[in-house]
Design goal:
Blueprint: E1 14-17, E2 22-24, E3 32-37, H1 44-55, H2 57-62, E4 65-71, H3 75-85, E5 90-93, H4 100-104, E6 108-109, E7 114-115, E8 117-122, E9 128-134, H5 142-150
Parallel strand pairs: 3-4, 4-5
Antiparallel strand pairs: 1-2, 1-5, 3-8, 6-7, 8-9
Length: 153
């Protein structure tokens, strides 16, 4: 499914977050980043996964990690969802060109027009150090990438 492999540089991107601000992956060099693709804002599994990150955000912050959650939803939907759920991390919109970043990571699903569930732990130099890729309906386990983050410390 993926075109991104562990040990390779992560594909760079600039996307708008839920507040309309540009976030560029390469500008975050010097700190570890978790790039997390999910299919749809407001959907059950996605809400559960992102609420788990929200509830454990301190673990990421303590490890000096920036969380970037990406979907093909428009910025306005992401803003409403973020406000509803109290997300204090970036929700990035891969809306237009539709799915361009998801495609660069090899996880865009043509049928539903959304990203599959892909999580990539990227080190301070911009290299992918760990990944997990699940289908649209398969939730990820938070403990997997928390363990991967500890290996980067």
């Amino acid at each position: 499914m993926s075109t991104v492999e562990v040990g390779q540089p992560a594909p760079d991107f600039t996307l708008k977050n839920q507040h309309g601000q540009d976030v560029t992956l390469s500008k975050l060099r010097g700190r570890n980043v978790v790039v997390l693709f999910y299919p749809f804002a407001f959907s059950g599994i996605c809400t559960g996964e992102l609420c788990e990150i929200r509830d454990n955000l301190e673990d990421f912050e303590d490890a000096g990690v920036r969380v970037l959650a990406i979907s093909c939803d428009p910025v306005y939907s992401l803003r409403a969802w973020s406000e509803q759920e109290g997300y204090d991390f970036d929700l990035l919109s891969d809306f237009w060109p539709h799915g361009e970043v998801s495609r660069a990571y090899g996880i865009f699903q043509e049928g539903p027009g959304a990203a599959a569930r892909g999580t990539y732990v990227i080190d301070r130099e911009g290299v992918v150090r760990w990944k997990i890729e699940n289908g649209l309906g398969d939730a990820r386990e938070l403990n997997g990438y928390l363990e991967a983050l500890q290996s980067l410390a």
